[in-house]
Specification:
globular, about 10% strand, about 210 residues, alpha+beta, Glutaredoxin, four-stranded mixed beta sheet
Length: about 210
């Protein structure tokens, strides 16, 4: 049996999910306050895969059961949580952004530059939600990579790598096989919390209190 102290806090997320960005802010607050926090493992989730056509483009006409009332309610929730967590966000871009290239590039960085992965992961989030940049654009990803001391040309090329794309699809399937249906989802051992939960909720998840 593994040592429970070695259990990671696994976080499933997608860059285009505003609640994932907010969940990251909550996680950072939890980690800063925790006496002995667990290691964090980020795992990808394809929030808009059902809208992606054979040509790789997102088809916004696909009915996902989310009407304008849903998006308006979500926007109000995002605004409330962004104020609660002290996060400034650009809310006007991400509905039109596909995170596929960013997720592929992120997988490459995680494998080839694990010591820089956290910085790149954070920088992708910040580029989209803090700066309103299209992180589906390989040139934007190259800029983001360069900003955290990663080789921009390698990251740009990784976004178009078919082998990495196949591996990413398998990671998406793995998430579905363990029952992940929405993001962010925080998993610690046999327990999980869904949504941009506050830091104290993460404390209860990890410490069981």
């Amino acid at each position: 049996m593994s040592d429970p102290d070695d259990t990671p806090l696994v976080v499933y997320s997608d860059y285009v999910c505003p609640f994932c960005y907010l969940g990251r802010a909550s996680l950072e607050e939890y980690l800063a306050e925790a006496g002995d926090p667990p290691d964090v493992e980020w795992r990808p989730f394809d929030l808009r895969g059902h809208k992606r056509g054979p040509d790789g483009e997102i088809d916004h006409s696909v009915d996902d059961g989310k009407d304008e009332d849903y998006y308006e309610q979500a926007r109000r929730n995002v605004e409330r949580l962004s104020e609660q967590y002290g996060v400034e966000m650009d809310l006007d871009i991400a509905r039109d952004v596909d995170s596929w290239n960013a997720q592929v590039a992120s997988l490459y960085v995680r494998r080839e530059f694990p010591d820089r992965y956290g910085a790149f992961h954070d920088a992708v989030f910040d580029a989209l939600w803090g700066e309103g940049r299209d992180v589906g654009d390989p040139d934007v990803l190259a800029d983001v990579a360069e900003s955290v001391d990663l080789p921009p040309d390698e990251v740009r090329a990784a976004a178009a790598d078919e082998d990495l794309a196949a591996d990413l699809r398998e990671e998406f399937e793995a998430a579905r096989r363990v029952g992940i249906t929405a993001v962010p989802t925080f998993v610690y051992g046999d327990h999980a919390a869904r949504g941009a939960v506050p830091p104290e909720h993460l404390t209860r998840l990890v410490e069981g209190v």
